[in-house]
Design a protein that fits this description.
single chain, mainly alpha, globular, 110 residues
Length: 110
Amino acid sequence: MNLRHALLFTSLLCAAPLALADADADVDGQALYKEHCAKCHGSDGLATTWRGYLFFARDFVDADWQQRQTDARILRRINDGPGIMPAFEKSLTLAEREALVQGVRSFRPQ
């Protein structure tokens, strides 16, 4: 297991359960996703952009990954910014970060 995987595993083990409040209805999660996430994760969530390949961005359309993740874990990753990804805890409001969680969830296969 490399250091990146060890850190990811440790952060997931330490993640306390977290209840997400309903995202503010005035916050457009899709617009925030396009602004902050699409350049690496792709507008389609598949992470097939050159930045996605370069930085090993997460494919949000992966049904297994979507199934394994809780909203709290996704929010933690948005807050902390794993690897090269920027942390958004101080630059976005809680409502905006929760809307981004829903933006990520919108790629969940039906």
